[in-house]
């Protein structure tokens, strides 16, 4: 989610990239009965033999059709060449022992965790030292391991917990790892597969939020308790230090730490909905609830100030802070009187601006924000008793820019910049000088003759909805251009211009146009842009997307015959609503890892955590507005739908493959054409390695060419 980088509690809340809005306080929800009229419930059993046999038959059908297209092999090679390219920019994180990168290529499909020096990283061919070889580990243990990151003890950062996922699931196994010796610690901390995480208190103590059994996970299947676990003791005997409520989305405790690694207190949150949380500080032997809005949270410490970020207006201490702002208080005053410490404004958005993220170095706060969907970054320092702001003027002004990495130990920071046609660049500053480019990605496709345009469509209620178009210069406005419209439109996530080698090579270079929508529900213009299209008003997102489709046809850029749509997760739901509500407007629909049966939202995968975005189908009033658009129920006989391509992942424990499975099965029963492909590994993002990702890319673009070009 947009604010995950800001909130100290993000790892506890385990925020996913799929759909939600504030949970209703209506009457308690009752279990949704299994609908007798749904003959495909059995496909919700992820790994039952009948379900997997059905999946294998669908995959074989795709392999015998789309994968036999004469264009498939070339597209697959082109995609794999881009994904495996050794000259792509290796993203890094600052650590006390060097710059750390996770790398995948043809020789290392599961990946290497590796480290280099800044001096070496600046060269065209850095010298890397391997920390962890995931391919070797998977082979040695006979497991489908996918690396999911590691959490390390500051300030040295050499004692870590490595998160390993079985086949790409969100749930992970945690193992203690020593970066110095490059080995897992014998008889070290170990936590079996679960949602949730752990945080280091010191070398011999962890705060652990996991599934401890005995009803310690919420309806959304996330933990709601935290234990303090000492080395040498059993996790079963670890004392519980915080307990939320089983009705929460996710709850737990964490530490309030500064950039030097010093612990200043213990925090806790109750995730009462996907977007709302109650915040607490351990003070005078008890948990004291903080006087924060439900859509606000702590954001870190810098210059002796504790930071807060809020998505709603916040009135406190006789002051009113606007939504989407950052606020601070003196750290020592906050610790002494959590709710009485005076608050001051750090940053607030201007017109058509919105906060995107932030990062803290040893002595500064960096804020990235959007200004009319264009990226900006600002440095803020608390000096002379006030906050002083300085824009990072050296960065491009007409691009997507952001903070790539920042050092807790030093003032170093890296920035990224990109747009649809400009290869990504990485910028470096030591914290005192203006940033300079240290890495530039090579071009992956021929952008000559292409241009970027920004337009507005008028939605059903009259709201102007911006969108981008990438196409050939002077494209004939005769409706003949094959056009792919992509969207997300949820969870306050912003869809921004980025350089995609695969879209460029497999679609733009071959004559297609690409459209990116900025519908309500996203975060392109701040929290209100999101909040105005949630719950009872979620149809606005679907209306906005349809309006963009209508607008590109009206302008003559394309025609319904040549217009296709694509989206994943919440975006898969977006595509599903679009082609079921306006089957006449589109001729192709790629539905990736979607939500689809919204009437069983709370019964499948992590769906119960997202009722904040959509509403709760177990509550009659809310069920009505969900039922009005749930695409699964709209798949009825006698409608000429555009032939969709569904794909999902068996290992997806977030949105769950049954949403896509049941949609395909229903279309099959109705005698309506479709394609279905299921990646047997890879989780919510699909594909555990680049070869599988390249296959998915090639299948999708062959499908688009068959539907929109031929």
Topology:
Elements: H1 10-13, H2 49-64, H3 72-84, E1 93-95, E2 98-103, E3 112-116, H4 118-121, E4 129-133, H5 134-141, E5 145-152, E6 159-166, E7 172-178, E8 183-184, E9 190-194, E10 197-202, E11 205-209, E12 225-230, E13 240-243, E14 250-257, E15 263-271, E16 278-283, E17 286-289, E18 296-302, E19 305-310, E20 314-316, E21 319-321, E22 325-330, H6 331-336, E23 343-347, E24 353-360, E25 365-371, E26 375-383, E27 386-391, E28 400-406, E29 413-418, E30 425-429, E31 436-440, E32 450-458, E33 464-472, E34 483-486, H7 501-506, E35 513-517, H8 527-531, H9 539-554, E36 563-568, H10 570-581, E37 588-592, H11 611-614, H12 620-627, H13 631-634, E38 644-649, H14 658-669, E39 675-679, H15 690-709
Describe what this molecule looks like in 3D.
With 710 residues, this protein is an alpha+beta fold. The chain has 15 helices and 39 strands. The strands form 9 sheets. Strands 32-33-35-34-36-37-38-39 form an 8-stranded mixed sheet, with helices on both faces. Strands 5, 6, 7, 8 and 9 form a 5-stranded antiparallel sheet that branches. α3 (72-84) crosses α15 and α9 crosses α10 (570-581). The relative contact order is 0.13.
Entry summary:
This protein is of the alpha+beta class and 710 residues long.
